[in-house]
Design a protein that fits this description.
Order of helices and strands: HHEEEEEHEEEEHE
Number of helices: 4
Number of strands: 10
CATH superfamily: Mog1/PsbP, alpha/beta/alpha sandwich
Strand content: 35-45%
Number of domains: 1
Shape: globular
Strand order of the largest sheet: 3-4-5-9-8-7-6
Oligomer: single chain
Largest sheet: 7 strands, antiparallel
Helix content: 25-40%
CATH architecture: 3-Layer(aba) Sandwich
Structural class: alpha+beta
CATH class: Alpha Beta
């Protein structure tokens, strides 16, 4: 008679542990893929394709839970293809862009790094700027493939920047030019 209540207690404890979050949530681990406009990448499954009017935009994805009154997400990744850069030296274009950007005293450089994206040399610049009327921390990755330069521009409010790195990494590490 005493074995049955002990078994019941173990079953109940197991159910409580499972319900408490010790099991991973499949939805949180899901991803989506984008393929179009000569690029492809993977992004967070809870994010959506975002409308963008940014100059030279190829595509944008964003976190719909961060959409503002103007229907723009404050956490996003924007892929850009700067005009008149085809066949130009990546480092020269990158250097010229940031010489101009940081000539404006409202933009604050945080860090720079040389990285690799899809086996291609890339340059990364992290900075704080006013983007769309809000202070935004950006992580810009410049990469050239097949003679074409692309910018993977990741942004969010400064307080969320560190926690969004895995979402930014997902796009950057899966980015390919088709």
């Amino acid at each position: 008679m005493k074995k049955y209540p002990i078994f019941l207690v173990l079953v109940i404890l197991t159910l409580v542990i499972l319900a408490s979050g010790c099991v991973t949530d499949d939805e949180a681990n899901q991803t989506k893929s984008y393929s179009g406009n000569n690029v492809s990448f993977t992004y967070n499954g809870t994010w959506d394709i975002a409308n963008t009017t940014a100059p030279n935009a190829v595509v944008a994805v964003g976190d719909p839970s961060t959409v503002d009154a103007r229907n723009n997400p404050s956490t996003f990744v924007l892929i850009q293809k700067p005009n008149d850069t085809e066949g130009k030296d990546l480092e020269a274009v990158y250097t010229e862009n940031y010489a101009q950007l940081f000539n404006n005293t409202t933009n604050q450089r945080i860090s720079e790094a040389n990285i690799t994206v899809n086996n291609n040399k890339a340059f990364e610049n992290v900075y704080i700027t006013n983007y769309g009327g809000y202070e935004t921390q950006m992580r810009a990755v410049w990469v050239s493939q097949n003679g074409v330069i692309y910018v993977i521009l990741c942004g969010t409010i400064p307080n969320n920047f560190e926690k969004e790195q895995s979402n930014f990494d997902l796009v950057i590490n899966s980015f390919k030019v088709l």
